[in-house]
Design brief:
Elements (H helix, E strand, L loop, with lengths): L21 H6 L40 H9 L3 H17 L8 E6 L1 H12 L3 E7 L25 E6 L7 H13 L3 H5 L1 E5 L16 H17 L4
Parallel strand pairs: 1-2, 2-3, 3-4
Helix pairs in contact: 3-4
Length: 235
């Protein structure tokens, strides 16, 4: 499916980070992609490190790309194999850190990162729970061939999928197909997974730095995410 890279509802690679979420970030291990270069987009958010402990690891250098179109195109060329290596390095760093606890490993992500929640939960056996925010459910040729539907039977933990009913980039048919596959799977983690759809919500409804932001749905999704992690031993 061809995507319009100018569509604000589909360009979701920018980080969705808020200061009031610092407590959650400090308590959980988070992994994903971040666009850090100032020239890319004025909407980029920078989070102070006050009260946090952080470190550097080397992952895909999308931040070097000067245009958001290039960032989106570059992300779509990122193979799962490379993404897994990046996430493996992140988990390894956190596990060695004094405040890290790999026994309570959770993962969340948005858009492409939301898709990677499903893929990483099947890849990383230490993951205890995942929450995917409007992650793509179809292939993106030529690099992305495997979809969340393909890993339903190999999940190492239950995943909560949060989707918008009016998401122009993720057809509801794909969402319902995934829901059905989870129900029919013999895998216990698939059976414990859930899909929640917010009617009339667009793609990126939790991106509070974009016009797609919908405060009520975003707040509800955040509560569901925290409750999901607590229920499955992450928080």
């Amino acid at each position: 499916m061809k995507r319009d890279l100018q569509n604000p509802d589909l360009n979701s690679l920018l980080p969705d980070v808020q200061v009031d979420r610092r407590g959650f970030v400090a308590a959980c291990i988070a992994a994903g992609f971040a666009v850090a270069a100032d020239p890319v987009l004025a909407q980029a958010i920078k989070t102070p490190m006050d009260g946090l402990e952080g470190g550097d690891i080397k992952i895909g250098e999308l931040w070097k790309l000067p245009e958001i179109k290039e960032v989106v195109a570059g992300a779509n060329q990122l193979s799962d194999e490379q993404a897994f290596k990046d996430l493996d390095a992140t988990v390894a760093w956190a596990a060695k850190h004094a405040r890290g606890n790999a026994d309570k490993l959770g993962i969340t992500g948005f858009c492409r990162g939301g898709r990677m929640v499903w893929m990483e939960t099947a890849h990383e056996k230490r993951v205890k729970a995942g929450v995917a925010w409007y992650g793509g459910l179809g292939p993106a040729e030529p690099v992305i061939k495997t979809t969340p539907l393909d890993v339903v039977d190999t999940l190492s933990a239950p995943v909560l999928g949060l989707y918008g009913g009016a998401d122009q980039g993720i057809p509801q048919e794909q969402v319902e197909n995934l829901r059905e596959a989870l129900k029919k799977s013999k895998d216990k983690n698939a059976q414990r997974s859930q899909i929640h759809v917010y009617p009339d919500m667009p793609h990126g409804f939790n991106a509070d730095y974009r016009p797609s932001y919908r405060k009520e749905a975003a707040a509800d999704g955040w509560k569901r995410m925290l409750a999901w992690f607590k229920r499955h031993g992450v928080a």
